[in-house]
Specification:
Blueprint: H1 13-21, E1 30-31, H2 32-38, H3 44-52, E2 65-66, H4 79-88, E3 93-94, E4 97-98, H5 101-104
Length: 109
């Protein structure tokens, strides 16, 4: 059975990224690669650019997107703020990486 394509051609690429972000619950994280895969693309850097240009970071939780190796990655308001937000949601970090990365990883299946 072919996997369901989450892509919505009525939204811009960035809007599609933000719509997916809204599905990630507090206490979970995802990766730039997982977001790109859910959109049926390998444009991982474009996903990163979408996160950096998020017009509504209060409601669209781009802080929940990390690197595929569990590293925190960048954040428009600084890495320390990203870590604070993640930890306020119960996501532990250590030495710039997510603790229990695989356990907390949210995938778009």
């Amino acid at each position: 059975m072919k996997s369901k394509n989450i892509k919505n051609n009525h939204l811009s690429f960035n809007e599609q990224c933000y719509a997916l972000l809204m599905k990630i619950p507090k206490g979970k994280i995802t990766t730039y690669k997982a977001l790109a895969n859910a959109l049926n693309t390998k444009a991982y850097q474009a996903v990163g650019n979408a996160m950096a240009n998020n017009p509504n970071p209060i409601n669209v939780p781009c802080h929940r997107v990390v690197n595929s190796n569990g590293a925190i990655g960048n954040y428009a308001f600084g890495i320390e703020r990203k870590i604070d937000l993640l930890e306020s949601e119960g996501v532990s970090t250590e030495n710039g990486k997510i603790v229990a990365f695989k356990k907390l990883l949210f995938t778009f299946n």
